[in-house]
């Protein structure tokens, strides 16, 4: 039966460059991995775990490879084991080594090895060339050269010298090409989040007897987020009624310099580093006119880029169904847990998850502005019947099963109404007639 470790301090000190008393205790390397991530709209809360075994007395657990985007003040330590132990100071230091060896770093190392091999071959060919030249010079400088031997000497020297020169020129050209590839690979490595060294975490632990257990680090990281995207499908029945299905999805991505593979992923509808209280008002001076740029400063959230998705054709014999996230609601937010264990690439590549959907009646009507456009456009007004607000994000529009375009869905609180356009309606004709004044 496991006993909880006694936590004396969740986070006591951050010493970045100077060694402290942790150097006096036995350091025990703990292999750790990211086990779970709670992804907010603007950041992520990471849970990293590892197994440890310590002798009686003082020890220091070392967990390496923590994200370079770590918010150090957010670090917390938890643990459980088969014996009582005391967690003391927690120290965070920049890692002295490189980051996780990514594919880009491996490619760069391979190119550097190839360049060194070419350099060695160039030096060997130049040594051979100098030897041939020295032989020719020795033959020409001989005190009593025999005329009968000179033609044979030149015949022996010339082909070897030509071959050495050709080989040297070819090797130089190949090395020049490798140099260009190396420069491109270096740029890729610099942009690769996994190439940046992260942090090492040192956890002091005092065990009353030899103990085994599991330690967990929880910390906040930047450069990880998710954004809402939607599918809106309108099935037109009888005017003015239609049936609208809204599918809620999430686009998730991370560039935190950590490997997130086979993790439990939870998506939260809150912001982790946003404002948490009413800002304090300052004294304002009223003056005529706008700011110098002619525009007032207004809050703005940039919607995520559109994502092209492939819609599978219907098959009568085999039906495929998208996996949906499990949904739960708290007092002021909603959580969606991605089905199964998932992986998020460290290079910022986007993954899309289906979160939830709801169906509702929609009031369908036609709008037109003949002064600018003589077409009549079909609009649908519907209510957000979900208990979770619909956040600002792009929406892909389908009418009677056909894709018709993309739009932006504004923020819609629960039980409030929203309106979306669903393309032109050819069954309605509009003509603009100007009345004489």
Which properties best describe this structure?
437 residues, disordered N terminus, 3 domains, 9-stranded mixed sheet, 7-stranded mixed sheet, alpha+beta, flat, 2 helices, 21 strands
Q: What would you say this structure looks like, in words?
A:
There is one protein chain. The chain is α+β, with helices and mostly antiparallel strands and 437 residues long. It folds into 3 domains: 3-97 and 196-221, no CATH class; 103-191; 226-271 and 319-424, no CATH class. It is built from 2 helices and 21 strands. Strands 1, 4, 5, 7, 10, 13, 14, 15 and 16 form a 9-stranded mixed β-sheet that branches. A 7-stranded mixed β-sheet has the order 20-19-11-12-17-18-21, with no helix packed on it. Strands 2-8-9-6-3 form a 5-stranded mixed β-sheet, with no helix packed on it. Strand 19 and strand 20 form a beta hairpin. It is flat and about 115 Å long. Residues 1-24 and 290-317 have low confidence and may be disordered.
């Amino acid at each position: 039966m496991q006993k909880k470790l006694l936590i004396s301090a969740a986070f006591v000190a951050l010493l970045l460059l100077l060694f402290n008393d942790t150097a006096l205790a036995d350091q025990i390397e703990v292999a750790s991995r990211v086990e779970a991530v709670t992804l907010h709209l603007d950041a992520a809360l990471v849970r990293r775990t590892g197994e440890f075994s310590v002798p009686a007395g003082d020890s220091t657990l070392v967990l390496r490879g923590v994200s370079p985007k770590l918010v150090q003040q957010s670090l917390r330590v938890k643990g459980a084991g088969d014996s009582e132990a005391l967690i003391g100071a927690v120290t965070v230091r920049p890692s002295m080594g490189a980051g996780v060896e990514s594919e880009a770093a491996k490619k760069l190392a391979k190119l550097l090895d190839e360049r060194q091999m070419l350099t060695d071959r160039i030096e060997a060919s130049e040594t051979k060339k100098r030897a041939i030249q020295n032989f020719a010079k020795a033959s020409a400088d001989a005190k009593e050269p025999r005329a009968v031997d000179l033609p044979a000497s030149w015949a022996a020297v010339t082909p070897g010298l030509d071959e050495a020169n050709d080989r040297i020129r070819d090797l130089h050209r190949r090395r020049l090409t490798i140099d260009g590839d190396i420069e491109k690979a270096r740029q890729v490595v610099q942009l690769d989040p996994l190439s940046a060294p992260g942090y090492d975490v040192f956890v002091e632990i005092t065990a009353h007897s030899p103990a085994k257990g599991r330690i967990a680090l929880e910390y906040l990281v930047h450069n990880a987020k998710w954004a809402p995207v939607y599918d809106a499908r309108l099935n037109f029945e009888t005017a003015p009624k239609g049936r609208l299905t809204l599918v809620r999805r999430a686009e998730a991505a991370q560039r935190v310099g950590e490997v997130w593979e086979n993790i439990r992923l939870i998506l939260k509808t809150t912001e982790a580093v946003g404002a948490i209280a009413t800002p304090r008002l300052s004294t304002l001076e009223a003056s005529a006119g706008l700011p110098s740029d002619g525009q007032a400063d207004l809050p703005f959230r940039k919607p995520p880029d559109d994502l092209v998705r492939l819609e599978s054709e219907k098959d009568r014999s085999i039906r495929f169904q998208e996996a949906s996230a499990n949904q739960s609601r708290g007092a002021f937010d909603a959580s969606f847990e991605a089905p199964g264990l998932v992986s998020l690439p460290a290079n910022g590549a986007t993954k899309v998850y289906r979160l939830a959907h709801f169906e509702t009646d929609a009031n369908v009507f036609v709008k037109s502005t003949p002064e600018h456009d003589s077409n009549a456009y079909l609009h649908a007004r519907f209510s957000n019947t979900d208990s979770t607000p619909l956040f600002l994000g792009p929406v892909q529009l389908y009418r009677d099963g056909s894709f018709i375009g993309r739009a932006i869905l504004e923020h819609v609180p629960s039980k409030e109404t929203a309106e979306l356009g669903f393309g032109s309606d050819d069954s309605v004709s509009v003509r603009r007639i100007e009345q004489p004044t």
